[in-house]
Design brief:
By secondary structure, this protein is α+β, with helices and mostly antiparallel strands. The chain has five domains: 8-101, 2-Layer Sandwich (Uridine Diphospho-n-acetylenolpyruvylglucosamine Reductase, domain 2), CATH 3.30.43.10; 108-225, Uridine Diphospho-n-acetylenolpyruvylglucosamine Reductase, domain 3; 229-337, Alpha-Beta Plaits (2-Layer Sandwich); 344-429, Alpha-Beta Plaits (2-Layer Sandwich), CATH 3.30.70.2740; 441-495, no CATH class. Helices cover 35% and strands 19% of the residues. The protein contains 18 helices and 18 strands. The chain has helices spanning 8-12, 14-24, 34-37, 61-74, 126-133, 152-158, 165-168, 171-174, 202-206, 240-252, 265-275, 295-311, 323-334, 336-341, 359-373, 401-418, 437-440, 443-456; strands spanning 30-31, 54-56, 77-81, 97-101, 108-112, 117-120, 138-139, 175-181, 187-191, 215-222, 224-225, 229-237, 259-264, 285-293, 316-319, 346-349, 377-382, 387-394. α11 crosses α13 and α15 (359-373) packs antiparallel against α16. The longest helix is centred in the last third of the chain and has 18 residues, at 401-418. It is globular. It starts with 7 loop residues before the first helix and ends in a 39-residue tail after the last helix. The structure holds flavin-adenine dinucleotide (FAD). Flavin-adenine dinucleotide binds at residues 43-44, 79-87, 90-91, 102, 122, 144-146, 150-151, 153-155, 157-158, 160-162, 210-211, 215-216, 337, 426-427, 463. Flavin-adenine dinucleotide (FAD) is lined by residues 43-44, 79-87, 90-91, 102, 122, 144-146, 150-151, 153-155, 157-158, 160-162, 210-211, 215-216, 337, 426-427, 463.
Length: 495
């Protein structure tokens, strides 16, 4: 994976840049020692590592604005970072970029039950938002498996999803407003406590912008009353085809479960060995279907889903009898990533999304690829959304095995696009899928997307090397005036 070549003149100015930033963020807010920077050198995509030029930890919007204004004037690149759990390398540092760490933005600013929303700083964890309101019977619906650690700012930047997003929507559907700082230091607000706003949907544009358009400094999200009741079904199938058919049948009956997740045999076995959730080990596919809402509705829907499962060929079926059992059904699924981590020194998690009815075909082709590459793969997926998370198992200590895992992963994502799906469901493009973007978008599409980037960050200083396989000069995209034949920003890298 090729990243932009570091700007030697910036590397040479490291001490000077640190001194200048210390004037903005005094005390321990600027980290420059190589030992302390080690903790920042990768995010959740640990296959790639790079210490940043330095790390800076601002505490308020004013400081973020001054840092960005300084970087804009001096041509210093900036990589924003929340909790560093990105699985696509979105927060991977660059040698010549400062890492802007938002962890100190950790306050809940306002809980407004009348308007059913919370205003929080971007470094608050996803679960922290729920924790602050659950005593009053409320919660924040999008629930990435990393929710104990990932920040809401990172969720906005990646448009994060989770088990309950099938029914309640992704981050974008639960976001009401943000405060954001542009690279020149301008502070903007999009949305608020109200629904929708006049003009372009800039809030939608910022959601999923992967730190390339601005830095989020405040977030307003919807909070929902907790459903009266929730029960889960654990359904085992002899083949993934039958499991996939059951998913399609449930949706086509007009039932939208609170969550609908599937695991294949390697994932079931890994999860069961890890948490003893009581999963059947002799099935090829396991489906967890959760129904939530008023008691009478849930009881009725449990019956209907049980019937559909029987007709779809379920060979085992269990209904959670109490809250403890429901949590146990989920415990295996939620621990599936670390469970697979016990089987292999390293794994590479993919995130393609496919039309639901292509699931059996894609699983079959994945098994063939697994044999071709000689690498194991375990599958967990948000079945209702068609969002796959194949976990490719490899050992980075074996020369060439990381590259083999990457090629295998690329083949899976190409397959997702080939069957009518997309490269990413919720983890973002980052560096991981950057070079596959042309598989999905034409050159014209990509140039149009880059024009949006240029409108916000013409010098390409915010998170360069991520998302776009090539950084065109904004001038080439018709955004800039070329004066006397001289290109502005001749140093913008192409890689
Ligand atoms: C075990 C595990 C399970 C996971 N499960 C899920 C899952 O179920 N669903 C899911 O969607 N994801 C999942 N993820 C991926 C990850 O947790 C999400 O992408 C999350 O949204 C990243 O948040 P973060 O705070 O860690 O952001 P980071 O990793 O720090 O950053 C991610 C991106 O956001 C940008 N960014 C961060 N903060 C800001 C800000 N304040 N302003 C502007 N840009 C910013 C960064 O530049 C980067 O591009 C999982 C990760 C792990 C390790």
């Amino acid at each position: 994976m090729k990243m932009p070549d570091p700007d030697q003149s910036i590397l040479a100015r490291r001490e000077e840049i640190a001194d200048r930033l210390r004037l903005i963020v005094p005390g321990e807010g600027v980290i420059i020692s190589s030992q302390e920077l080690q903790v920042y050198e990768s995010d959740g995509l640990t296959a790639y590592r790079q210490p940043p030029l330095l790390a800076v930890l601002p505490e308020n919007t004013q400081q973020v604005s001054e840092i960005l204004k300084y970087c804009h004037t001096e041509g210093v690149k900036v990589v924003p970072r929340g909790s560093g759990t990105s699985l696509s390398g979105g927060a991977l540092p660059l040698a010549d970029a400062i890492l802007l760490c938002m962890g100190k933005f950790n306050q809940i600013l306002d809980v407004d039950y009348d308007n059913r929303c919370s205003v929080v700083q971007p470094g608050v964890t996803n679960l922290g938002i729920t924790k602050a309101v659950e005593g009053d019977g409320f919660y924040y619906a999008p629930d990435p498996s990393s929710q104990i650690a990932c920040s809401i700012g990172g969720n906005v930047a990646e448009n994060a999803g989770g088990v309950h997003c099938l029914k309640y929507g992704l981050t974008t559907n639960n976001l009401l407003g943000i405060e954001m700082v542009l690279i020149d230091g301008t502070v903007l607000r999009f949305g608020g406590k109200h629904f929708d706003g006049a003009g372009y949907d800039l809030l939608g544009l910022m959601t999923g912008s992967e730190g390339l358009l601005g830095v989020v400094t405040e977030v307003t999200v919807r909070i929902l009353p907790k459903p009266e009741t929730a029960r889960a079904l654990l359904l085992g199938f002899s083949t993934s085809e039958e499991g996939g058919a059951c998913v399609a049948a449930i949706i086509s009956e007009g039932i939208i479960p609170g969550g609908m997740e599937m695991m294949d045999k390697p994932a079931i076995q890994a999860a069961e060995a890890f948490v003893n959730a009581g999963y059947p080990l002799d099935v090829d596919a396991l489906l967890i279907v959760e129904l939530d809402g008023p008691q009478a509705e849930v009881d009725y829907l449990i019956e209907r889903v049980s019937d559909i499962a029987k007709k779809s060929g379920a060979v085992t079926s269990r209904i959670s009898q109490n809250e403890e059992e429901r949590q146990l059904f989920w415990a295996g699924r939620k621990a599936a990533f670390p469970a697979v981590g016990r089987l292999t020194p390293d794994y590479y998690c993919m995130d393609g999304t496919i039309p639901r009815n292509k699931l059996p075909l894609v699983l079959k082709r994945m098994r063939e690829m697994s044999a071709h590459y000689g690498l194991g793969v375990a599958n967990v997926f948000h079945a209702g959304d068609g969002n796959l998370h194949p976990l490719i198992m490899y050992d980075a200590n074996n020369p060439g095995e990381l590259e083999k895992a990457e090629d295998f992963g690329s083949d899976i994502l190409r397959l997702c696009v080939e069957v009518g799906g997309v490269l990413t469901g919720e983890h973002g493009v980052g560096v991981e899928k950057r070079d596959l973007m042309p598989e999905m978008f034409t050159d014209v599409d990509l140039k149009q997307q880059l024009r949006v980037k240029c409108a916000f960050d013409a010098k390409a200083l915010l998170n360069p090397g991520k998302v776009f396989p090539e950084l065109h000069r904004c001038a080439e995209l018709g955004r800039m005036h070329i004066h006397k034949g001289k290109l502005p920003f001749p140093d913008i890298p192409r890689f």
